[in-house]
Task: structure prediction
Amino acid sequence: MAASEPNSGQRVSPGDDASPPDSGSLTSSPAGVSGSSGSSASATVQNPSSGIGKILTRTFESLRVRQYLFLWLGMLAGMSGTQMQFFARGVLVFDITDENFLLTGIVGVGFGPAMLIGSVVAPVISMRLEGRLMIQMVQAGQVILAATIAVLLFTDQLLWQHMLIASVIQGGLFSFMMPVRQVIIPKMVGKGLMSNAMSLNAAGMSLTAMAAPAIGGVLYWQFGPEGVYVVVASLNVLAVLVTGMIGNFPPNPNAPRRSVLASWTEGFRHVVTRKVLMQVMIFSGFAALMTMPFRMMLPPIAIDIYGASEVETGLLVGIVGVGSLVGALGIANLRSGQKRGLILLLTSVISGAAFVLFSGLPMYWIGLILMIPIGFAEVGRFALGQALSMELTDDEHRAHVASLFMMSFSVVALGMLPLGLAMEAYGAQASMMGLGVLLLVSSVIFMVTMRGLRRLG
Result:
């Protein structure tokens, strides 16, 4: 599947934390690249004299590494398709089930159990298979899924049960994507740029969240759901090709080869014996449970509260991406010592306040404005939580910690079911008010009890 075979300068020694970019860099000899035998190398650049130049260089520093650039572009293509699919699935299922919140929630929940099960075996597999191939296999699976749904739509055979099956399969595929990315990104950019690279990953996802749903809404309106799914399949084909431009990332032959049970026993031991890491994981998981179901259920929520059209709903989802993009680029500038733990905790306060206002002021234009802080807080939790957990983890356990983050997405899927039940019983507006109040109360509790995370720089 590789579009080009990497040269020796692109290959990564399995035992290294990061390889010097060399030919993997966008420049032949980037300033600041350091390397010595037996040590990690970080790709850094000299800051230009202008203030804006310094900010831009600092923000996009990891993209100077060629390997990471192609990984990032492949993610951009794949996530554009995924964001379109999430939007189309919510509207499509809500439509074919005669606007049934519960069934829409069940389809959304479908990917949770599969992601949970896949996350159990993903760290072990990601440490034994070549990284690029594993990513491309997941992307190819996305192509097959989208193409299958498109065929069912074109032949007028689609049922909501088909969407549930597709959701389950997609959850299994997603569970393998994050662990392998977290294993190879430090090898590409080095530990010093890990936080920057994670934030740029989040920025790319935010960019797709901003543009893809709005585009998906227009496509849905003009060409129907089948047109959206054809575009989704095409974008994932592009992702496979672009990812093929990065080098091979073979597994470390010196890594311990444990069974799944032994591997996870060691992984959990690593997390629970590190207090601040444990706090990052607990907070990130709980915040995901409270906030992400709203994001996944936004299309039917917008239809219920505002009577929004497909285009208006897509615009709401897209504005979330605007806030996420702004937040991710800001977080990409953060470095060690800049109160990152406190900023992480504040993201749940922002989300809770926005949910309360969203419910209390049910006007479409106010909803559009509130999508910005909602997106900002969401990406802050995701990017900062991921970056801090990776920095607090050694190479051997990084895949396990990344899989724990994937499990938090499984919890998100499970959280969609009670939210769907609440909206079916009390309506979307009252349910969102209750969710916002609960999130604000829990935020205060976390602020008081998690002093280690609050003081983390």
Summary: Residues 272 and 425 are 39 Å apart (CA to CA). The mean pLDDT is 78. The longest helix spans residues 194-243. Residues 61-454 form a domain with the Growth Hormone; Chain: A; fold (CATH 1.20.1250.20).
